Amino acid sequence: MVRLKIRAIAESKGISMSRLSRLADVHYKTIQHVWRDPTSGINTKTLEKIAKALEVSTADLIEDIPDEN
User: Fold this and answer.
1) Most buried in the list 15, 37, 39, 68, measured by CB within 10 Å?
2) Is 31 exposed, middle or buried (0-12, 13-18, 19+ CB in 10 A)?
């Protein structure tokens, strides 16, 4: 399973959901969705925009977590 670390990285940089939405030029509802559900899917273009806005690599936003089974 993959978990996105967008919220943790944004919060560590003092960036709110609305500010990240503006910086990344990504719809607020999309940011809100991945913020609340870090295991949800996201397309790579959106992930790239968010990574650029947070000044990190896309790899920094992804965490591979073992399945519970």
Assistant:
1) 15
2) buried
Kindly report the backbone phi and psi dihedral angles of residue 44, in degrees, each rounded to the nearest multiple of 5, phi listed first: -65, -35
Give the span between the Cα atoms of 67 and 4, in whole angstroms.
15
The tokens 């947070």 sit on which residue?
54
Is the CATH number 1.10.260.40 carried by domain 2-64? Answer: yes
Q: Which of 57, 46, 2, 44 is nearest to 20 (CA)?
A: 46
Three-state DSSP class for residue 29: helix
Per-chain mean pLDDT for the chain: 94
pTM reported for the whole predicted model? 0.90
Under 8 Å CB-to-CB from 17, ≥6 apart: which residues?
Answer: 10, 28, 31, 32, 35
